[in-house]
Amino acid sequence: MEAKEILPLITVYHRKLAETSMTFKRSLYFSINWDVRMLGIKGEKGVGKTTLVLQHIKETFNNPDDALYVSMDNLWFKTHSVMDLVDHLYSIGVYYLFLDEIHKCPDWTAVLKNLYDNYPKLNVVYTGSSMLRIDNSKVDLSRRQTLYRLHNLSFREYLKYEGIASFEPHLLEDVLKNHVKYAMEITSRTKVLKYFQDYLSHGMYPFYKESHSDFHIRLSEAVTQTLESDLPAVEDVTFETVQKAGRLLMITAESLPFVPNVNRLCEFLGTTRDSCLKMLYALDRAGVMNLLTAELKNYKKLVNPDKIFLGNPNIMYALGGRTETGTIRETFFANQVGAYNTLQYPKKGDFFASGKYLFEVGGAGKSFEQIKDEPDSFLAVDDTEVGTGSRIPLWLFGFLY
Asked: CA angle at residue 20 from 16 to 22, to 5 degrees?
């Protein structure tokens, strides 16, 4: 391959790098071990994976041409291969490669394995759909890489992104023990309730700033693209299955909170129970749904979900389904707490977190009646600045990352 053949890639790379802002970094940025030879970052469309990678390049390399960023959906790869590109880069001493949208590359797991095994000086960072399943692929990548998940913006990150105030994240256990102290510190610096509703409506994806009034339209399009493009790229599914997955998503959006009857869903969709469950769990991995099960969620053992939420409140608004206050509250809690803690469907209450803590979610007047005799039980209450005892402001669960 001649140097001039990759000029189109370099031009796009330089343009993207020049336009990358360094003023705000996602919290995950500071947790990533960038020194490993191969690392992956997966996440939903629009959460900021590309920006995160370009920020790292901009901050790390004095000479940008010591690295190369490419997106696998670039038309250049219609007539060229990744391996040819790497052969050329390796021959001229470029050992840092950043591959965006890796799931758009056919046989991506085999490609990554070959890059790792055959180019010992090469460092690879790749991003991909949140549906990527490394542990379920035919090629073993687990011992070769470190994998991270970039979630949508937390409420804490939203406040920082808006330039309102900057706060440190807190572990769930710390919030439960010290929520009064944390809430007093935060509310002394900003009126959180003033911004919380805006966040629930449109503040969970960084691109809301550039899309303005078109945000919900763009988010709806991103969800559609996830179904029509990412799902077939990651799973071996037919066009008919993609259409059924879309119908399944809209059934859920129009019936929230959705307590599924899988047999009736199968009948409506004209599919088998196994296929229906595979679709549900694929939508869960994609981040557009959030399945709650009584036992720990396991993508290798697909059980009937006990309750289904959409991925986050922004998606609820974008899809134009039911946006009742109670469901928005529960969806927010499931999204934020479930990002880094296990969630299960309990016999009493709304959520069982980390195998220990029981939560009931509601408004400021919510009582303990339903969970009053349960150990380690808490109320997550809306419209409250500072809680007391086991009554914790709902918004504070947006400060976990």
From this structure: 160
- For the stretch 256-283, pLDDT in tens is 767 878 888 888 888 888 888 888 898 9
Answer yes or no: is pLDDT of 135 > 60. Answer: no
Cα Rg of the chain, angstroms: 22
Residue labelled with tokens 């807190």:
170
What residues have CB less than 8 Å from 264, skipping those under 6 apart? Answer: none
- Distance, CA of 121 to CA of 115 (rounded, Å): 10
What is the residue-averaged pLDDT of the chain?
A: 92
DSSP 8-state class, residue 261 = -
* Spatial distance between the Cα atoms of 208 and 46, rounded to a whole number of angstroms: 9
The rounded distance, in Å, linking the Cα atoms of 91 and 327 is 56
Whole-angstrom Cα distance, residue 396 to residue 377?
Answer: 16
Q: DSSP string covering 2-52, please?
A: -GGGGHHHHHHHHHHHHT---S---GGGGT--TTSSEEEEEE-TTSSHHHH
In the chain, how long is the greatest CA-to-CA distance? 73
Q: Which of 384, 104, 340, 136 is nearest to 232 (CA)?
A: 104
Global pTM reads 0.91
pLDDT digits (tens, 9 = 90+) for 80-125: 999 999 999 999 999 999 999 998 898 888 999 999 999 999 999 9
Cis peptide before 257 (omega within 30 of 0): yes
Query: Whole-angstrom Cα distance, residue 282 to residue 315?
Result: 16
Q: What number of H helices and E strands is found in the chain?
A: 15, 12
**Total residue length of the chain:** 401
Please name the amino acid found at residue 300.
K
**pLDDT (tens digit, 9 = 90+) per residue, 303-326?**
889 999 999 999 999 998 778 899
Contact present, 62 and 166 (Cβ < 8 Å): no
Whether the predicted pLDDT of 355 surpasses 60:
yes
Amino acid found at 73? D
Bridge partners, 71 (sequence order): 100
